[in-house]
Amino acid sequence: MKSPPSIVVLLAAAVLSAGCSDSTGRPAPSSIPVDPDNVTDFAVLYRQNCSGCHGAEAKGGAALPIGDPVYLAVADDEVLHKVVTNGVDGTSMPAFAKSAGGMLTDKQVDIIVRGIRQKYSKPDALAGVTPPAYAATEPGDAMRGASVYATYCASCHGSDGKGTAKGSSIVDGSFLALLTDQELRTLVIIGRPDLGAPDWRNNVPGQPMSPQEISDVVAWLASKRSQFPGRPYPHGAKPAGEHP
Description:
The chain is mostly helical and 244 residues long. Helices cover 41% and strands 0% of the residues. The mean pLDDT is 87.
């Protein structure tokens, strides 16, 4: 009959076992890469996929401030899901869902939408105010829009829309080429508070824009799009090296 191992042998085995788990070259659990599909932390997903354009705190970036409480009061979760999932054709907003060619799972899209809503929305952002609809219900009229523009926008953006010391050009060909009519409408409604541009209620103090006026000024802006945005030479002229 074998005698049981001595206490010294047991202790030696325990020390050796502990040493193996901490041996040189052995990766620590925290250093093992996480499967991208299993990332479920909103902060990580937002930082990796959204912050480059929309800013670290969902405002102050080059793109629309998706953390703006007015925006979140106007755009419902269906809108947010659609934009994150499919992107916006013809603009710099790409599709993020795998189903549309992106890299995020449907669950991760849900986490981003829910996280933005929970972190940045304010239930009382429009208390007592009925905002314009996110999408236009009636088409705008560019001719009426010229008058609307003169009333609500020209004081900052200039009579021709090409900008002043108070506001940038909003008829620049490249700018208009990067935005759909819906994005123009969204910007007219929510403004860009981070850039000093007020929302639809405050362009003229005490005189909020009506839904039809918003549609009309968007139609006026859309009418300013050039056929070839950013073209650096007159129509009809040929740049060096271009064949007839």
